[in-house]
Design a protein that fits this description.
The protein contains two helices and two strands, in the order ααββ. The chain has helices at 4-25, 35-58; strands spanning 92-100, 106-114. A hairpin with a 5-residue loop joins strand 1 and strand 2 (106-114).
Length: 115
């Protein structure tokens, strides 16, 4: 099995071979014909970019190993003590109650009710 660096060099070699084949397929340029020079310069730029990119990418260092595992600190809280107080005395409140004055007459009166 190949390592990452040698695989990059194999890719760069394959790219250079492909570029050489492309350059060989181009017809030779004459003195009056400028098209061959333009295509040759373009191909040389592409090959240079591919090879330069392969060299730059091959120079990268492998990533550092992940940090070692450290367990997190756990904070355990103790439950709070709950104090239940007993009633001191009765709880009282006021209510409005209907008080009849006669057969059809009534009034409302406030009455204190204690539980």
């Amino acid at each position: 099995m190949a390592t990452n660096g040698s695989f990059t060099m194999i890719r760069a070699g394959a790219a250079a071979l492909a570029a050489t084949l492309v350059l060989g397929a181009v017809a030779p340029a004459t003195a009056r014909d400028q098209t061959g020079a333009i295509i040759g310069g373009l191909a040389a730029g592409v090959v240079g970019g591919v090879v330069g990119g392969a060299l730059v990418n091959g120079a990268n260092q492998p990533p550092p190993p992940p940090p070692e595992y450290r367990p997190r600190r756990v904070l355990v809280e103790e439950p709070e003590t709950v104090v239940v107080r007993e009633r001191r005395g009765p709880i009282c409140h006021y209510e409005r109650r209907k008080e009849w004055l006669g057969d059809g007459e009534f009034t409302y009166r406030r009455v204190e009710v204690c539980e």
